[in-house]
Amino acid sequence: MQGTFEGGTVRVGGDARQRFYDARGYGRPLEGNRIELAPVEAAHLLFRGDLDGVVGSDGEAMDFRTFLVATDVALEFVVYKDLRDRGFYLSPARDGWVDADDAGAASDTDFVVYPRGKGPADDEVAYRVRVAGERETIAAAALGEVVLAVVDEEGELTYFETGRPDAAGDADAEGSRYDPPVGLDAALLADRAVVWDPPADLHDRGFYGQRLHGRNAESGPLQLSLVEAAYLARRGALALDEPRVVERGRDVEGERFDRRLRAYAALRAAGSVPKSGFKFGADFRTYDTFTTVDEMDHSTRLIRVVAPDHTFLPRDLSLDVRLAGGVRKRMVFALTDVNEGIDWLSVARLTP
Amino acid sequence: MQGTFEGGTVRVGGDARQRFYDARGYGRPLEGNRIELAPVEAAHLLFRGDLDGVVGSDGEAMDFRTFLVATDVALEFVVYKDLRDRGFYLSPARDGWVDADDAGAASDTDFVVYPRGKGPADDEVAYRVRVAGERETIAAAALGEVVLAVVDEEGELTYFETGRPDAAGDADAEGSRYDPPVGLDAALLADRAVVWDPPADLHDRGFYGQRLHGRNAESGPLQLSLVEAAYLARRGALALDEPRVVERGRDVEGERFDRRLRAYAALRAAGSVPKSGFKFGADFRTYDTFTTVDEMDHSTRLIRVVAPDHTFLPRDLSLDVRLAGGVRKRMVFALTDVNEGIDWLSVARLTP
Questions:
Q1: DSSP secondary-structure letter at B145?
Q2: What is the ipTM of this complex?
Q3: Closest Cα to residue A308, out of A351, A345, A352?
Q4: Which residue, of A263, A316, B135, B264, is most buried by count of CB atoms within 10 Å of its CB?
Q5: B187 to chain A: which residues are within 8 Å by CB?
Q6: What angle, 0 to 180 degrees and rounded to 10, lies between the N-to-C axes of helices B74-85 and B39-48?
Q7: Helix (H, G, I), strand (E, B) or coil at B290
Q8: Is B203 a catalytic residue?
Q9: Which residues of B touch A314 (CB under 8 A)?
Q10: Whether A336 contacts chain B with CB within 8 A
Q11: Does A154 touch chain B (CB under 8 A)?
Q12: Nearest Cα to B44, choosing from B99, B91, B114?
């Protein structure tokens, strides 16, 4: 059986509709029993030997190899074949091939994947998949609904599922809110602040700061990060001018400081307790069920603050997500505008 | 007992030499029994109550708190105190305070740390420590001998030991060298190459490429990364022009491609087998005792290729090193000039 390559798709006649579309979810029906196939579908049928060749505009029949080079769909082929091998039927999300709803709000979907046992004629979607090479940049704003399938430079596949959680994580904002006292004596140092005589609760229940005398100390002065200090100064908890602290923060890290402060404040407002994520290479780790320092759970999320127009290199995403997975935390990006709101984006490894 | 702050150091008389220098390794001796202390040492003695105050130029005695703010040595204090608490004596690496040899070739040493039980009068060094805040940038070229002590924004400490290994890792260059055949039929695709009928050994003994038919396939075409393809083309193994492959690589990732190719070739030349490090967010993972695909050990190193003038943000370093540690691999940076040699830099977590 042969197909004809014209206008960007491959048309197949004969009993193609029954054999390929109805029985196995390839292509989309045309009039009669004819179907049209996206190049990646035709490549897969060529690869399997279900199509013998595809006739190009020069009248010559192309085999799998020639067709793959001519259409350069190697990247899509790797993903398409992998999902087929895992037992899924899937459709290329070409204009008019799938419902706009199924393709999702973002126009960045490459494949609509149906639940196992379902196909294009059913009305269910398991995943919307976007295919990316290792070197492409991915706009953070385009993620949140799609599964990102990254093909690395050697052709290995990694799937990332993306979501749009809220600021709270699992935090119960009503649970254990701690209100710091007012006007605590504090000094601003080069890139941190020190509270000289903090009430015990500031650290033990609010989990602000770190003992200047070392992590095993149970009392004494507290070092605060500039983010913590700015947040507490804004609430009147420190005898420090908030603008002075913010100014110092900007000196140290530019407008990133404003972003980080916004994300920090949003996490606190949602009942979560953010602490430095330095040991994990992130901005914050969060404790979402925090009551006191003595009864601390494992931190549950790693937060990285980025600008709303941030673009990811897949490799950086892979690094963050792999690390978070290894320490059983959820990787969350805070897409934070200096003046506007925050969009939260979670990314995790997925095995379809 | 009081000290006097002048010219950047604190001078102490009385029996200071016996009490502080001889017995506990603080400061350096002056004439008679007097010593001088670096500000961080004086801060530590004030903190402990061993000094009652330090008299400044205005004739007023400063306590710990006032002295810390006046000298802004909070960062150094956190590290100094931690190492003391761990049982080490250490000296500030000020000009003329320690032997130039002890301070190391780099002038970036802040503290010379003596082995436990030893002190400044002995001639042994355990660590040369450089102190850095989380926001400072660290030149890669300045690492390799020092231990980097990073104080994060909340005052938590992380130690990184750095070294200068060679390209070989544990690889035995004589062991299992595989010489690929010549002139294999291959096609250049957008960001990869495909070898259509590879001999089995190309993958199984050379560990080049990845099956186009998926990772469980045992035969069929091999996808090669552009780096693998350029390396093999240079050796005549592929019927592809090396310059064409390199050109394609540069199109995809600029001069980083040249750097990565140099590092790849150096690793192969040293008997190591580099494969994509994408899943770990690195350039390569390396198999250093590779014989065949069927008898593969765990990969032992993660390699990130950077320019020789690269500067690290401590947080990025923390991310790489934490991930590598979590998967029991060694993090190695290849400081690679496009035209010159490669300096290898290993970085690992250290508990002093």
A1: S
A2: 0.91
A3: A345
A4: A263
A5: 65, 69
A6: 60
A7: coil
A8: no
A9: 278
A10: no
A11: yes
A12: B91
